[in-house]
Amino acid sequence: MKKLTAEEAAQISIKEHGRSSYARAMLLNMKPGEFILLENKDWKWKTQSPVTYCRGLEKHSKLKYECNRTADASGWLVKRVS
């Protein structure tokens, strides 16, 4: 256990209670203008891609994302627009 400053605590991603994935927590905790690289090893869903998942988050919240597949197919580059 260690004591954190306000700046250190703000850098930690928070996961919602219940059944939430690590990728969802990262996407919801992004600030506008930030990028993340979702690698293939991080994405376990077979029926849905991160592009589709981001579109679903946009429908149910006020967040906007740009999500594109990388050229070498190693993952997806996601940018939070607003």
Task: Describe the secondary structure blueprint for this structure.
Layout: H1 6-10, H2 22-28, E1 35-39, H3 50-60, E2 65-69, E3 75-80
Antiparallel strand pairs: 1-3, 2-3
What distinguishing features does this structure have?
about 80 residues, alpha+beta, about 20% strand, globular
What's this, in brief?
With 82 residues, the chain is an alpha+beta fold. Helix content is 28%, strand content 20%.
Percent in strands: 15-25%
Task: Supply the number of structural domains.
Answer: 1
N to C succession of SSEs: HHEHEE
Cα-atom radius of gyration: 14 Å
The class by helix and strand makeup works out as alpha+beta
Query: In which range does the helix fraction lie?
Result: 25-40%
Low-confidence stretches: none
Structure explained in plain terms:
The protein has three helices and three strands. The chain is globular. It has one domain (19-80). The chain has a three-stranded antiparallel sheet, with helices on one face. It has 82 residues and is α+β, with helices and mostly antiparallel strands.
